[in-house]
Amino acid sequence: MATMIEENGPSTHEQSEVSPWAQARQKLEGLLNKNMKIRMTDGRTLVGLFLCTDRDCNVILGSAQEFLKSTDTFSQGEPRVLGLAMIPGHHVVSIEVEADSLEDTQGFGSNRC
Predict the structure, then answer these.
(1) Residues 87, 94: Cα–Cα separation, whole Å
(2) Which domain of life does the protein's organism represent (predicted)?
(3) What does pTM read for this prediction?
(4) Helix, strand, or coil here: 54?
């Protein structure tokens, strides 16, 4: 029988069942320090490293750059460097993880000890 330390203290488990909360947490932890592209309700797009989130779905990006919504389909314009940025959860339209960032992750989505 193995003893595991959980958020509520030590407990003993005989089964290897993982709660949905633990699975979601593992997925989020697997995305830490990965490049993300976040589209916002006002048309802006922020690209940066995923550093953290909270229960209200606010997102913190590091080394963030802002891309404005372009009226001209041929030019995206120069990105504006923001550095550390907090995006309120209610302004997030979509979140994409850049593919090259996921290739570096080994065992993404699998159970880790």
Answers:
(1) 12
(2) Eukaryota
(3) 0.68
(4) coil
C-alpha 38/C-alpha 95 separation (Å) is: 5
List the structure tokens of 108: 């993404």
Q: Is 93 helix (H, G, I), strand (E, B) or coil?
A: strand
What contacts 56, CB < 8 A, 6 or more positions away?
88, 89
> How many C-beta neighbours within 10 Å does residue 62 have?
14
The whole-number pLDDT of residue 17 equals 81
Place of tokens 């209200």: 56
Residue type, 39: R
Give alpha helix (H) positions in 1-113: 20-31, 99-103
CA–CA separation, 84 and 63 (whole Å): 6
